[in-house]
Automatic annotation (TrEMBL):
Record has Transcription as a keyword: yes
SMART domains: HTH_GNTR, UTRA
Residues of the HTH gntR-type domain: 21-88
Species, as recorded: Streptomyces kronopolitis
Keyword field contains Transcription regulation: yes
Alphabetized UniProt keyword annotations: DNA-binding, Transcription, Transcription regulation
SUPFAM superfamilies named in the record: Chorismate lyase-like (SSF64288), Winged helix' DNA-binding domain (SSF46785)
Upper classification of the organism: Bacteria, Bacillati, Actinomycetota, Actinomycetes, Kitasatosporales
Pfam family membership, one: UTRA
Matches recorded under InterPro entries: Bact_HTH_transcr_reg, Chorismate_lyase_/UTRA_dom_sf, Tscrpt_reg_HTH_GntR, UTRA, WH-like_DNA-bd_sf, WH_DNA-bd_sf
Protein name: GntR family transcriptional regulator
């Protein structure tokens, strides 16, 4: 199959040029910048805004709009007082594999930093999700997600105290929760329901993850069950949109259209 205008199948048709053919100045500058990023390679330092504006014959404000879009897309990142070419996004599978496994598959070292571990009485909505009675004891564990010591996300886990009574004393919070359940408690995951959406981080979340408040985030809600079908955990995972993409495998013989 030939793709329109010779484009790679993953690229926008006609590189995003409107059908009327009039290209916004910022977008033309963005295309020129993208070509420069290819030349510089990962970690390459961009020239100053003044130099780039002169090079591409655009105003500083037009250039800044192009730079902002490339930063939001994860192709550039701020480093000190400069801007450098970012590495590729991490592709996290939408599966029962843990965050640890997904990041290691990308050749990076996963980690977590504990923000809080609290015990509280379960409210009605959460009780319904976890198959508990209202007021039953529940753990809430909040952790910053790391990849090679870079803050890339924020995870909130809710689990019944009766399922993991010694979480506060026996679980190393910088390790995989799934591995802990499997190795120490003999609990295996059976299936899960997930919902994926895009959101903006709250000011608190942006501060914990270390991102601008305007950066789009990928939010996953997950309700997991064990192999007996019993609800196990409710998880809210927030990932940086400029550092992550998600993949899944689709099977079956249904006709598309």
């Amino acid at each position: 199959m030939e793709f329109p205008y010779g484009q790679d199948p993953g690229a926008p048709v006609r590189s995003g040029i409107p059908e009327h053919g009039r290209i916004p100045k910022y977008y033309a500058a963005k295309v020129d910048l993208a070509a420069l990023l290819e030349e510089l390679g990962e970690g390459g330092v961009l020239p100053t805004e003044r130099e780039l504006a002169q090079r591409f014959e655009v105003s500083r404000e037009t250039l800044r709009q192009a730079l902002r879009e490339l930063i939001l897309e994860g192709r550039l990142r701020r480093a000190g007082r400069g801007t450098v070419v970012a590495g590729p996004k991490m592709a996290q599978p939408l599966s029962l594999a843990s965050y640890t496994e997904g990041v290691r598959d990308q050749g990076r070292e996963p980690g977590r930093h504990l923000v809080s571990l609290d015990r509280f009485r379960c409210p009605p909505a959460l009780a319904a999700d976890l198959g508990l009675a209202e007021g039953d004891a529940v753990w809430h564990m909040e952790r910053v997600l790391l990849a090679d010591d870079e803050r890339v996300g924020l995870e909130s886990t809710y689990v019944a105290v009766e399922r993991v009574p010694d979480l506060a004393t026996d679980f190393p919070p910088d390790s995989s929760f799934y591995a802990y359940l499997r190795r120490h408690l003999g609990i295996d995951f059976g299936d899960a329901d997930e919902r994926l959406e895009t959101v903006l981080a709250t000011p608190r979340e942006a501060l914990l993850i270390g991102t601008p408040g305007a950066l789009p985030m990928l939010l996953i809600h997950r309700l997991s069950r064990d192999t007996a079908g019993r609800p196990l955990e409710r998880v809210r995972s927030l990932y940086r949109g400029d550092r992550f993409s998600f993949t899944t495998h689709l099977g079956g013989g249904g006709a598309g259209g």
